[in-house]
Amino acid sequence: MSGVILVTGATGNVGREVLRELIARGAAARAAVYNLADAPQGAGGVAEAVRFDFRDPTTFPAAFAGADRLFLMRPPAISNVKRDMQPVIDYAARHGIGHIVFLSLIGVERNPIVPHAKIEKLLRQSGVAWTMLRCGFFMQNLDTTHWADLVEADDIFVPAGGGRTAFIDARDIGAVAARVLTEPGHAHKAYNLTGGEALSYGEVAAIMTEELGRPITYSDPSPLAFARRFRRRGYPGGMVNVMLGIYLTTRLGMAAGISPDVARLLGRPPITMRQYVRDYAATFQK
Ligand SMILES: NC(=O)c1ccc[n+]([C@@H]2O[C@H](COP(=O)([O-])OP(=O)(O)OC[C@H]3O[C@@H](n4cnc5c(N)ncnc54)[C@H](OP(=O)(O)O)[C@@H]3O)[C@@H](O)[C@H]2O)c1
């Protein structure tokens, strides 16, 4: 394929890394950007950017013009798949997209109620070649969702008990996505993307303490205390419930599985938590 690769969620944790990797590979990548004022800078130059809104089909023609591959993600605020995601999949199928790489969720095959499962089903029915990137929990949740607690209180405020997580660095997801979008052999495959180690939050706090040079605690709040704090911060109730569900499954040991797919696809081990904390140290300074 020789057309443009359209990248949705291009200002987000993963989309920005997909874009960076595609530009580094010399691929013709186009950033589909919700707020054009936030248009991302690609490595080695400014990526072509176009306004795009999943909920506004009038933005589709300019975004898809000349594109033959799509990196598809579901913004966390979108839960109505039929109304807000199906139109873009239908449009892609009718307008020259030959391969869709979807940012999905690990364990989705056992969890038919999550939006990602519904999107995977639509992709299977779309007639377009697909690849599912079923990701574990991102390291970058620490420098986004949990950043305020880390910087203001030197604390990881997560109700996950002693449960372990095989955290993945979003940069590894970007590297995998760029390969899958530009190399043959990945159509109709689903990959499980995790890091190479499963850590408890106590262990993450110890790594952060060593790398940031100040004590970081893991306070393991009750689900109620967690919900209260995030509601106070303005998180919608639905999103807080999703987070509580994620941390409950972590507590139950369901986030600890390690997959070999990242190492196999990239030919190197996944980025470790220690490396992530080192690379993001400036973000965690007070
Ligand atoms: N966090 C995790 O640990 C984890 C693990 C596995 C899977 N996932 C899945 O990964 C996805 C989130 O990826 P992410 O963390 O890279 O995203 P993110 O950082 O939350 O960014 C969301 C992106 O979507 C854009 N956006 C929001 N509303 C839009 C709309 N109506 N139309 C077009 N674009 C819109 C945002 O643009 P603006 O910046 O302009 O608002 C932003 O670029 C979710 O589906 C989540 O379930 C997450």
Radius of gyration, taken over Cα atoms and rounded to an integer in Å:
19 Å
CATH H level, superfamily name of the largest domain? NAD(P)-binding Rossmann-like Domain
What is the average of the pLDDT values?
95
> Which shape, going by the Cα principal axes?
globular
Low-confidence stretches: none
The chain-level structural class is alpha/beta
Task: List the keywords.
UDP-galactose 4-epimerase, domain 1, binds NADP nicotinamide-adenine-dinucleotide phosphate, 7-stranded parallel sheet, 2 domains, 286 residues, Rossmann fold, 13 strands, alpha/beta, 38% helix, 12 helices, two-stranded antiparallel ribbon, NmrA family protein
Protein architecture, described:
The protein is of the alpha/beta class. The radius of gyration is 19 Å and the shape is globular. It has helices spanning 15-24, 60-64, 81-84, 86-94, 115-125, 147-153, 170-182, 201-212, 223-232, 237-251, 261-266, 273-279, and strands at residues 4-7, 29-33, 41-42, 45-46, 48-51, 67-72, 99-105, 129-135, 155-156, 164-165, 189-193, 199-200, 217-218. The chain contains twelve helices and 13 strands. Helix 5 links the parallel strand 7 (99-105) and strand 8 (129-135). Helix 1 (15-24) packs across helix 7 and helix 9 (223-232) runs antiparallel to helix 10 (237-251). It folds into two domains: 4-135, Rossmann fold; 139-166 and 196-256 and 268-286, UDP-galactose 4-epimerase, domain 1 (Alpha-Beta Complex). Strands 5-2-1-6-7-8-11 form a seven-stranded parallel sheet, sandwiched between helices. A two-stranded antiparallel sheet has the order 3-4. Strands 9-13 form a two-stranded parallel ribbon. NADP nicotinamide-adenine-dinucleotide phosphate binds at residues 9-15, 34-35, 38, 52-55, 73-77, 103, 105, 135, 137-138, 141. InterPro entries: Ergot_Alk_Oxidoreductase, NAD(P)-bd_dom_sf, NmrA-like. This is NmrA family protein. It comes from Candidatus Promineifilum breve.
